[in-house]
Amino acid sequence: MIKERLCVLISGRGSNLLSIIKSCRGKDFPAKVKLIVSNNPNAFGLRYAKQYKIPFKVITKNFENTLLKQLQKNQIEILCLAGFMKVLSKNFIDLFFNMILNIHPSLLPKYKGLNTHKRVLNNKEKESGCTVHRVDGKIDSGEIILQSKVKIAKNETEASLENKILKKEWTLYPRAIKKYCKEIKRYYWKIGGTA
Ligand code: GAR
């Protein structure tokens, strides 16, 4: 099976990165993590790169140009943002043919941006969740690939909601990657390429 070559971008904890790495180790999973990039040298998630012996780069200066070179060098086909807190320019997104996915801890298009859980609780929402979407150049915006919902309990706190949603994220992101890879393959066939 030909596997799509992924690069995962992180800024911190990296728990979504870990779930993606583990899923990619499955024989039938259609993608493989070939590169991990962080804009933060102290990102906890970088230890998963070392643990699983996956090439990684910390880029603190000239971020997009350096990243593009790394993506070309490693023949990356899909970029996954996983807790990556730097905004990518529209120019960069266009250059990478829009093959960029992101996970956000809300039911988009609701609650884009930061402090999601706090705003959800203040508004007394009954449910929240997480979304994997294609990145279109605006913050937390773009075609939705998959969503997962959670119910909000009466005594819910920001921390308990974050934990509840994070657990859903760990299964949602790999499922969304799988779905996206299938869609890309269908597209390749349509335009007469090979997949
Ligand atoms: C996740 O909850 C992710 O949805 C969120 O940051 C967290 C990263 O956790 N992303 C955003 O808010 C993007 N707008 P992780 O580093 O443990 O994967």
- Computed CA radius of gyration, to the nearest angstrom: 17 Å
Helix content: 25-40%
**N- to C-terminal separation?**
10 Å
Main β-sheet description: 7 strands, mixed
Which sequence of strands runs across the widest sheet? 3-2-1-4-5-6-7
Bound molecules: glycinamide ribonucleotide
Return the string of H and E elements: EHEHEHEHEHEEH
**SS-based class:** alpha/beta
Mean pLDDT figure? 94
Number of distinct beta strands: 7
Task: Catalogue the unreliable spans.
Answer: none
Principal-axes shape call: globular
Count the helices. How many? 6
Strand content: 15-25%
What is the topology?
Blueprint: E1 4-10, H1 15-24, E2 31-38, H2 46-51, E3 56-58, H3 63-73, E4 78-81, H4 90-95, E5 100-104, H5 116-122, E6 127-134, E7 144-151, H6 158-190
Parallel strand pairs: 1-2, 1-4, 2-3, 4-5
Antiparallel strand pairs: 5-6, 6-7
Helix pairs in contact: 1-6
The chain binds glycinamide ribonucleotide (GAR).
